[in-house]
Specification:
- The protein contains nine helices and 15 strands.
- With 332 residues, it is an alpha/beta fold.
- It has two domains: 223 residues, DHBP synthase, CATH 3.90.870.10; 90 residues.
- The longest helix has 17 residues.
- The structure holds threonylcarbamoyladenylate (TXA) and magnesium ion (MG).
- Magnesium ion binds next to loops.
- The site of threonylcarbamoyladenylate has 28 residues, from β5, β6 and β10.
Length: 332
């Protein structure tokens, strides 16, 4: 069973982080908070350490991982080339929820990149993540700290529920602030392509890289041509059947057993029309707050064993793109 280490999110105690940092450096696994979601970390320079991530998550090893650094000077341990556009993006968005795909440095473990000659890298905006990586003294490969295809964790309790038996340490610094995984941006070809939308939007990136675009939706291209092998359609799924609809009340009325359904709403006014449901969560009209609370709502409703989660379709503008992406991947 994992050892739980509680630290302050803003000012983590270095002595509390010493044991998990040593464990990481020695090739063991430790889960830690980032600005986006909790990550499952391993020494990115050692294949044997990285292999443990795939085993713990039950994740296919053709799905490459993100390498996390604490300080910009460490980028040269991870990438072979740090071109001017990447420097400009890093200056604007790091530390933060933007992952860059660049040419891989040969010292990065092969397994991290799943055999590609590229690598995903980011500097997370979380004092605990950065202190831990600094103390470990090596770049840290970390996918989200959940079992493969399950909902990503935004609290240490979510990590323990899913992976508590499979890892050595879980660092608890409370809930994460962004709540959805980082935006993944490939700088390998021109124009730069967003492979996975996140809460850093296309419009924000376009201020630095005006020709940035979205990669073609991965379900339109064959698995061999996917720019990001990890972008399988089925992903981020709760156990319950998830349905996205315009009007939750109409679907609820057609369900044989409404108390077995939970509703996730944008608008508080709709709570009145969904009172037949077993549970109702209102996440609101601010995409940043909605994203922050979405995964916790899915984890909670799953723990309460609802058979169906009915999600009111959120607004269409681009600030909601990552939310739509995750909801669609979670849908049955
Ligand atoms: O917010 C996040 O990004 C979290 C925290 C822990 O940092 N991490 C995360 O990692 O979501 P993971 O492994 O669940 O997702 C990594 C994504 C996958 O879609 C993967 O396919 C893509 O990044 N990726 C990684 N390396 C890549 C590469 N060399 N080329 C293309 N895509 C890559
Ligand atoms: Mg993940």
């Amino acid at each position: 069973r994992a050892t739980l280490v509680e630290v302050d999110a803003a000012l983590p105690d270095p002595t509390a982080l010493a044991a998990p940092a040593r464990a990481l450096a020695a090739g063991h696994l430790a889960a830690f908070p980032t600005d986006t979601v909790y990550g499952l970390g391993a020494n990115a320079l050692e294949d044997a350490a990285v292999a443990k991530i795939f085993v713990a998550k039950g994740r296919p090893s053709n799905n490459p991982l993100i390498v996390h650094i604490a300080d910009l000077e460490d980028i040269h341990r991870v990438v072979a080339d740090f071109p001017p556009l990447a420097q400009e993006l890093a200056k604007t968005f790091w530390p933060g929820a933007l992952t860059l795909i660049l040419k891989r440095h040969e010292s990065v473990a092969d397994l991290v990149s799943a055999g590609l000659d590229t690598v995903a890298v980011r500097m997370p905006a979380h004092p605990v993540a950065r202190a831990l990586i600094r103390q470990a003294g090596v770049p840290i490969a970390a996918p989200s700290a959940n079992r493969y295809t399950e909902v990503s964790p935004t609290t240490a309790a979510h990590v323990l529920d899913g992976l508590g038996d499979a890892i050595d340490f879980v660092i608890d610094a409370g809930p994460t602030s962004v709540g959805l995984e980082s935006t993944v941006l490939s700088l390998i070809d021109s124009p730069p392509q967003i492979l996975r939308p996140g809460m850093i939007t296309l419009a924000q990136i376009a201020e630095v890289a005006p020709d940035v675009c979205y990669a073609a939706p991965t379900f339109l291209v064959g698995p061999e041509n996917r720019p990001s092998p990890g972008l399988a359609r089925k992903h981020y799924s709760p156990r319950a059947a998830l349905k996205i609809v315009g009007q939750p009340s109409s679907l609820l009325q057609q369900m044989p057993n409404p108390p077995d359904c939970a509703c996730i709403l944008v608008d508080p006014a709709d709570a009145l029309t969904t009172s037949l449901a077993g549970a109702v969560r209102v996440l609101g009209r601010d995409p940043l707050l909605y994203a922050r609370n979405l995964y916790a709502a899915l984890h909670e409703l799953d723990a309460e064993q609802f058979g169906t989660i009915i999600v009111q379709r959120p607004p269409d503008d681009d600030r909601w793109r990552a939310i739509h992406d995750r909801l669609e991947r979670a849908q049955d």
